[in-house]
Design goal:
This protein is an alpha/beta fold. It folds into 2 domains: 193 residues, 3-Layer(aba) Sandwich (Rossmann fold), CATH 3.40.50; 85 residues, UDP-galactose 4-epimerase, domain 1, CATH 3.90.25. The chain has 8 helices and 14 strands. The protein has a 7-stranded parallel β-sheet, sandwiched between helices. It has a 3-stranded mixed β-sheet with strand order 12-9-14. It is globular and about 55 Å long. It starts with a strand and ends with a helix. 47% of the residues are buried. InterPro entries: Epimerase_deHydtase, NAD(P)-bd_dom_sf, Sc_DH/Rdtase_CS. This is NAD-dependent epimerase/dehydratase. Belongs to the NAD(P)-dependent epimerase/dehydratase family.
């Protein structure tokens, strides 16, 4: 079976590629290396450098299964960037899948599709009410996936990831905290008021959840399915700051910033994927954050 991973030089995508190669799959990575890094790509995978915004990105590429993990992950990016990198790119992947006879597309969605959900933990049937253009772009991607599944038989599994952390990450609060403290260990500014609460999942566990969900989906008859992928607990941003500072062995003055966060609360219910695929995380949010910081510090050193 030939597997294509878009964004396979990025954070989650590169870890997924490592696991697929380890399990014996023939893997093709498609990445434009705008944020992904060549050194992230497993040497046993074939790297095809192309921009998914180009309708002809897939010249010379074939696959049975597509894991679509490419996209701009920065929530605060300009709206047009999200439209082009996360909506246009997803459309081009789906259209190529339709024309190429791809059996299944696994789409990396996000917990941001729920916005500031009033139900916590948030189940999959909660309304999609994003409060950021990034979240809206992911919701649009899910809608396109579901429509292509119904109209053209391109089966699609959408995975709504919580905050995934671990080595190779180059964005998000934990990475920002580490980089700030490496420059100024005496002070740390936290965006928002620090009380925003989210769950955190280590990337190794996110990859395990991805593969288990995909394999179960292949056994099912549904054309489209959306599943949450997160942890069973959550942390405030101040909790995360404390874990990072303790792990780094520094004691800065923590200052609350004025810039609002994307979502005040993001805590997903994972009962559906647990029952369907038999998956639950082994590490808590606290353990996931601490392990990610330790790995990131080692990597940066």
């Amino acid at each position: 079976m030939k597997v294509l991973v878009t964004g396979g030089a990025g954070f989650i995508g590169s870890h997924l590629v490592d696991r697929l190669v380890e399990e014996g799959y023939e893997v093709v990575v498609v990445d434009n290396l705008s944020s992904g890094r060549r050194e992230n790509v497993n040497p046993q995978a074939r790297l095809h450098i192309a921009d998914l915004k180009d309708p002809d990105w897939a010249v010379g590429v074939s696959a049975d299964i597509v894991f679509h993990f490419a996209g701009n992950p920065e929530v605060r990016a300009e709206p047009r960037v999200h439209f082009e990198e996360n909506v246009v790119a997803t459309f081009n992947v789906l259209e190529w899948a339709r024309l190429s006879g791809v059996r299944t597309v696994v789409f990396a969605s996000s917990s941001t599709v729920y916005g500031d959900a009033k139900v916590l933990p948030t189940p999959e049937d909660y309304p999609l009410e994003p409060i950021s253009v990034y979240g809206a772009a992911k919701a649009a991607g899910e809608t396109m996936c579901a429509t292509y599944a119904r109209l053209y038989g391109v089966r699609c599994l959408a995975l709504r990831y919580a905050n995934v952390v671990g080595p190779r990450m180059r964005h998000g609060a934990i990475y920002d905290f580490v980089m700030k403290l490496r420059k100024r260990p005496e002070e740390l500014e936290v965006l928002g008021d620090g009380t925003q609460r989210k769950s955190y999942l280590h990337v190794e566990e996110a990859v395990e959840a991805t593969l288990r969900a995909w394999r179960k989906f292949e056994e099912m008859g549904e054309p489209y399915l959306a599943l949450n992928v997160g942890n069973v607990d959550s942390l405030t941003m101040l909790d995360v700051a404390k874990i990072v500072t303790e792990t780094m062995g520094v004691a800065p003055v923590i200052k609350v910033g004025r810039e609002p966060s994307d979502c005040m609360n993001s805590f997903l219910s994972i009962e559906k994927i647990s029952k369907l695929a038999g998956w639950r995380p082994r590490l808590s949010s606290t353990e996931s954050v601490r392990k990610a910081v330790e790995e990131l510090l080692k990597e940066l050193a």
